[in-house]
Write a structure and sequence with these properties.
Blueprint: E1 7-31, H1 35-46, H2 51-58, H3 62-74, E2 78-80, E3 86-88, H4 90-93, E4 105-118, E5 124-125, E6 138-139, H5 144-148, H6 150-160, H7 162-167, E7 184-207, H8 226-239, H9 245-254, H10 258-261, H11 273-284, E8 290-294, H12 300-319, E9 328-332, H13 343-354, E10 365-372, H14 378-388, E11 395-399, E12 407-412, E13 416-423, E14 433-439, H15 442-457, E15 459-461, E16 464-465, E17 467-470, H16 471-475
Parallel strand pairs: 1-6, 9-10, 10-11
Antiparallel strand pairs: 1-4, 1-7, 2-3, 4-5, 8-14, 9-12, 11-17, 12-13, 13-14, 15-16
Helix pairs in contact: 2-3
Length: 478
């Protein structure tokens, strides 16, 4: 996505620790009065009156007037003035803000709600789907005291944010008030922590026309984003890797990929977004079978583009009587700390697997290779198993080192290839920059296939094949 001055080069989800609470509280609301009582008080608010005047004005019998007046006196809302006329008390005068207003009576009511608060800024946010697990994102670390004292802190913040929480519609069950004034908090009776959950903060990383990072935007979900930006900066610093630009340039040369090299300014080695727009325009008007893109392959726009390039292949295989079950569709993950740190990854991986077959036929064999140090790396394998969730059965471990771990490849034999370079330029960009291309050029697809298969089928030594086996099997070790 590109505006006049910025272009998005990555999208990463950060997981901010949060908790869900059951909060029991009392609130003050304004409600109207019964008809006769209201209008007697309204006329009295204009001027004191005698019983006879009230009886005449409302057309009541003497008995009805006596009952109405007696009730109001007992409630402490009417009294006799020194002149012998009925007048409002201090209590009932408080029901009015100005002459002609409808009197409003304050009442204290009990209620409760289940609400979620993050543990950094204690902002109340919409209750998310329970399936939102601690994966497909980078977890942020918060002050331990915030978690251990969360119930006490939420009690304070709930009171301070009560009107704001009302405005957001999170307490819709107490918003059906007739009066003009909003309900107000009276007291918090109890706060009980129910469970821990993440607040998923989807973050776009953008650069300017010179290829340099621009400041990140604030989050609508949070009352204040400054604290969270600081937590992110800590994680980004921890995950930062050395500049790998020259290593990737060498890989481009080995792939005979001179087109991507043209996107970089020769003086700064930084990408020039304007060059990117030029090459895209050129590709659209030629039959090269190549599409250059910026950002992760699983971002919505890139994935949609990729699926379009596969449509004809998939349709042809569905119609064909040929057996395509042995056709391998390989996806090689890079050694990049920001890869797959987005909920978009899971949905794209689901597509990759789901579209591999119809009810009648297997169209291809989907295999995801993820980096491990060797077939004994059970700790990393277990982490991958957790991250991939229900899809881990389709994942295999691949010994780290494929093109220095900087390059991601998707390859469907004889049909389509995708190359994504993951640039680390910590001096100018806070996260890695995925940049690559899709191709249906048969010669290049074959070249990519040979590159992938040569590495997958080879060994680093006699007893250490690069294909380390199923992630689930490696995870059982140790």
């Amino acid at each position: 996505m590109m505006s006049d001055n910025t272009v998005t080069y990555h999208e990463v989800d950060f997981l901010l620790p949060a908790q869900r609470f059951n909060i029991q509280f009392s609130y003050v609301s304004q409600r109207g009065l019964p008809f006769i009582r209201e209008f007697v008080l309204r006329i009295m608010h204009v001027a004191p009156m005698s019983k006879v005047q009230i009886s005449t004005y409302f057309g009541l019998s003497r008995r009805e007037t006596d009952e109405a007046i007696s009730d109001l006196v007992q409630r402490g809302e009417l009294t006799l003035s020194p002149e012998g006329r009925l007048t409002l008390t201090e209590k009932s005068s408080g029901y009015f803000s100005e002459i002609g207003e409808i009197p409003q009576l304050s009442t204290v009511q009990d209620s409760g709600a289940t609400l979620s608060f993050d543990l950094a800024t204690f902002s109340c946010f919409s209750n998310q789907n329970d399936q939102d697990k601690w994966k497909d994102g980078i977890s942020l670390n918060i002050d331990n005291g915030n978690a251990s004292q969360s119930e006490k802190l939420v009690e304070k913040h709930f009171q301070h944010q009560f009107n704001q929480i009302l405005d957001k519609g999170y307490l819709s069950h107490i918003q059906t008030q007739d009066g003009k004034e909003q309900p107000s908090i009276y007291t918090v009776n109890s706060v009980n922590k129910l469970r821990q959950l993440p607040l998923r903060l989807t973050t776009t990383f953008q650069m300017d026309n010179d290829g340099k990072a621009v400041e990140r935007e604030d989050y609508e979900e949070l009352n204040s984003s400054e604290c969270v930006h600081e937590l992110m900066a800590i994680e980004l610093s921890r995950l930062s890797t050395l500049n790998n630009t020259m290593s990737i340039f060498k890989s481009m040369l080995s792939l005979s990929d001179e087109e991507t090299l043209k996107l970089f300014d020769s003086n700064t080695n930084l990408i020039n977004p304007n060059y990117l727009e030029d090459i895209r325009a050129l590709e659209e008007h030629t039959a090269s079978g190549r599409t250059t893109f910026l950002g992760p392959i699983y971002s919505k726009s890139n994935w949609d583009q990729f699926q379009k390039s596969l449509v004809s292949v998939i349709n042809e295989r569905i119609k064909s009587k040929a057996d395509t079950s042995g056709s391998r569709f390989i996806w090689i993950a890079p050694s990049d700390p920001y890869w797959a740190k987005s909920s978009r990854f899971s949905s794209s991986l689901s597509d990759f697997i789901r579209r591999s077959s119809t009810k009648e036929k297997k169209l291809y064999d989907p295999i995801l290779y993820v980096p491990v140090s060797d077939d004994k790396d059970f700790r990393v394998a277990r982490q991958w198993k957790h991250e991939l969730g229900q899809f881990h059965d389709y994942a295999r471990g691949l010994a780290e080192g494929f093109l220095d771990g900087n390059i991601e490849i998707l390859h469907l034999e004889d049909e389509v290839g995708v190359v994504i370079y993951h640039f680390s330029q910590p001096e100018t960009l806070p996260v890695t920059m995925p940049l690559g291309f899709m191709t249906t050029n048969k010669e290049l697809v074959a070249k990519l296939g040979k590159l992938v298969n040569d590495y997958v089928k080879s060994s680093s030594s006699f007893d250490k094949p690069n294909d380390c086996g199923a992630i689930s099997s490696i995870a059982k070790g140790g």
